[in-house]
Amino acid sequence: MKKGLVLISMIVVLILILAGCAGQPSWLDNHGSGLPNGGSKYFVGIGKGQSKDIMLARQQAEINAESEISQEIETSVRTMFQEYARQANIAPATLNSKGAKTVVDKVTRSVKELITNVYLGDVRFDRYYTKYGEDGFITVYARAIVPKDFLNKIAVKKSLEEGEKVLEEELKNLDKAVNK
After folding, report:
1. Whole-model pTM above 0.85?
2. Which one of 3.10.129, 2.40.50, 2.70.98, 2.30.29 gives the CATH number of domain 41-178?
3. Residue 1: exposure state from Cβ atoms within 10 A (0-12, 13-18, ≥19)
4. What's the confidence (pLDDT) of residue 178?
5. Residue 159 burial (CB < 10 Å; 0-12/13-18/19+)?
């Protein structure tokens, strides 16, 4: 009986030591870890929430992860529109002007808002990591993912096409004003 108790105690101590050495999961450093193709086919957002209430910490982490994805989408849309503007028949001097940047930013923001409403239905939280602090605070990390192919959805494509039309019209008006 005494040997069994000693053995159980040693196993418990070993488990506690190993749990302490585990550290944080790899997806916190490599956001695409564990996803197909290393996450290249996904928008990935990592959010952090901290509170004494675990549910509040988790909710904050999810909101922050969604916000990170929203910023990634905005960057992708801005890049698409900048490329579109370069391919349009607009004078280089106009494209390099502050006005052109303002136009691209304005159209990007409006299209991003439309796209964000569409993609919210595709957000999936696939990983959580919880850390309990000695001060009573709980830190939760959440990973949100959205497949990049959501950009092919009809509503998203329509928003992008309408954005391209507005962008082209605004850039042509700017081009006329600059070249007067």
Report:
1. no
2. 3.10.129
3. exposed
4. 66
5. buried
